[in-house]
Design a protein that fits this description.
The chain is built from 8 helices and 4 strands. The longest helix is centred in the N-terminal third of the chain and has 34 residues, at about 30-60. The protein has helices at about 5-25, 30-60, 90-95, 110-120, 130-145, 150-160, 175-180, 190-200, and strands at about 70-75, 75-80, 180-185, 185. It has about 200 residues and is mostly helical. Helix 1 packs antiparallel against helix 2 (about 30-60) and helix 2 runs parallel beside helix 4 (about 110-120). It has one domain (about 5-200). It has a two-stranded antiparallel sheet. The chain has a two-stranded antiparallel sheet with strand order 3-4.
Length: about 200
């Protein structure tokens, strides 16, 4: 299974899981709390899975296991080419880690910097649109606030929320955001996961 297929399968499963939880848990306080925790957990899994996709999708072309098909973007033919002659998996991993024990792929700029070490011009990773970059920034900030309820994480979360929707409450929680609708019948949870899936299409 390709990195894109694996990630998009996870997205579909998480959207289905949320729908099932919404139907099953809608009663009293305990059920509402269980529903809130479950949906937040699903979101954390989605963002973590997207980071795993970025890792796999960067490693693929760099190790020549995956070929990014050239395509026309804004009337220009764009190709993905290795910057280095070396493409052994262990060497590519060493370059990406840069002496650290692990690599962070979000904020997205970190993935972009790593891609510039391995691929000519960082393509296709440096070609992501401004709106897609903003989506990933927002997803990361929501994820961070779910995981770390600090004042700093809250301020970044609120700022990201305001960029897409007027706030319904003065101090929103993650579930306010995740349940809010970007348009009729589509929650921000579903929207963000679908946007990440669309980004995975572009990068694959």
């Amino acid at each position: 299974m390709t990195p894109k297929a694996r990630f998009q399968s996870t997205v579909a499963s998480l959207i289905d899981a949320r729908a099932a939880v919404v139907v099953a848990l809608h009663g009293g306080r305990s059920e509402r709390h269980a529903r809130e925790y479950a949906i937040q957990r699903f979101y954390l899994v989605a963002v973590r899975s997207f980071e795993a996709f970025l890792e796999d999708q960067l490693h693929g072309p760099a190790t020549k296991r995956v070929k990014w098909a050239s395509r026309n973007l804004n009337g220009v033919r764009v190709r993905c080419s290795n910057r280095l002659l070396e493409h052994r998996a262990e060497i590519v991993k060493e370059i990406i880690l840069g002496g650290k024990e692990y690599a962070d792929y979000l904020p997205y700029e970190r993935t972009e910097k790593m891609s510039e070490l391995l691929l000519i011009g960082g393509r296709p990773f440096n070609l992501l649109s401004g709106s897609d970059r903003e989506t990933l920034r927002r997803c990361q900030r929501v994820r961070n606030y779910i995981a770390h309820r600090s004042d700093f994480a809250l301020s970044k979360f609120v700022s990201a929320y305001k960029n897409v929707k007027p706030l319904r409450v003065s101090k929103p929680t993650p579930i306010h955001y995740l349940d809010d609708q970007i348009r009729a019948g589509i929650s921000m949870f579903e929207h963000d996961l679908s946007q990440m899936a669309a980004i995975s299409n572009f990068l694959s």
